[in-house]
Write a sequence for this structure.
């Protein structure tokens, strides 16, 4: 497998102790996260050495200063988030819930295996292709390495992000690599266990940090539901127009955020056009509306388009 198959993906990767970590930039934050595993941290987490290798940092290794470390409250859950100063130049990375990803192929684990770190002058970064396997354990996702590697070649990769390309130089992260899968006390060949992103989001919520997710699907569903309820009404008061416009503005913002993380941008663009048309008509109707005026047919046509798209 060729290194650098994923354009820009190495900007997410960082060495955390003897393991790896994955940079993540939360929207609107003046700091960055490193998603990693508890077992990569020292007993005194602040003393953990985090290195941005020279191959990524313009020819010189750079140690990154830790601002804060947050561990998952469950002692049996090997997940941690390191907060550091905001790092510029990271490619687009968006968090995805593993159950909203339908693909079984096209995943990659990125990190710094020990075997490469020990060779002077060697590029320590590696990206390994994965296939996703079905698993009933929602706290762990199971993958299979496409190329054959033994355990020593995977040492140091734990804590590395498991990502998938969504478009050029844009990626989604769905999990963090934990360990080789074990069955009956023995490692199961090329199978890899990973911790899904939502486990890290639990750390975020407990510590009142900025979310990994752009917008929750629940919030989006609620907005769509409210708009449809209004559409089904035979008459709109001026106040109803104001409420629908506010809801459509929220939908527009959600679509722009989704466009960042989804490969199918053409579908997003089509939805955005419908919302724009709908808003223009409502604004026009709002200026002329009275409580006894029926909704114009042309606006109902756009409302039908909204139902169709959403």
């Amino acid at each position: 497998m060729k290194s650098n198959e994923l354009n820009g993906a190495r900007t997410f990767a960082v060495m955390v102790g003897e393991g790896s970590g994955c940079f993540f930039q939360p929207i609107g934050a003046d700091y960055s996260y490193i998603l990693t595993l508890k077992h990569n941290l020292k007993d005194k987490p602040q003393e953990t050495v985090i290195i941005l290798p020279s191959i990524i940092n313009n020819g010189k290794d750079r140690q990154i200063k830790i601002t804060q470390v947050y561990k998952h409250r469950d002692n049996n859950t090997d997940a941690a988030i390191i907060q550091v100063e905001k790092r510029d130049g990271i490619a687009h990375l968006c968090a995805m819930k593993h159950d909203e990803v339908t693909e079984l192929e096209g995943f990659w684990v990125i990190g710094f295996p020990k075997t490469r770190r020990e060779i002077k002058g060697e590029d320590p970064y590696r990206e390994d292709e994965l296939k996703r396997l079905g698993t009933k354990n929602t706290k762990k996702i199971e993958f299979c390495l496409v190329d054959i590697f033994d355990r020593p070649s995977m040492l140091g990769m734990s804590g590395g992000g498991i990502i998938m390309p969504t478009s050029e130089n844009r990626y989604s992260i769905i999990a963090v690599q934990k360990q080789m899968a074990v069955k009956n006390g023995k490692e199961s060949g090329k199978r890899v266990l990973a911790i899904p992103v939502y486990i890290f989001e639990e750390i975020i919520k407990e510590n009142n940090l900025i979310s990994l997710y752009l917008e929750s699907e629940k919030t989006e569903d609620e907005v769509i539901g409210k708009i449809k309820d209004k559409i089904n009404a035979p008459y709109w008061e001026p106040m109803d127009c104001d409420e629908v416009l506010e809801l459509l503005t929220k939908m527009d913002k959600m679509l722009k955020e989704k466009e960042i993380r989804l490969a199918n941008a053409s579908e997003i663009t089509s939805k955005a056009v419908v919302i724009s048309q709908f808003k223009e008509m409502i604004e026009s109707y709002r200026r002329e509306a009275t409580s006894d005026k029926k909704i114009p047919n042309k606006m109902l046509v756009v409302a039908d388009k909204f139902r169709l798209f959403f």
The mean pLDDT is 78. Residues 221 and 310 are 9 Å apart (CA to CA). DSSP finds seven helices and 14 strands in the chain. The chain has two domains: 9-206, 217-309.
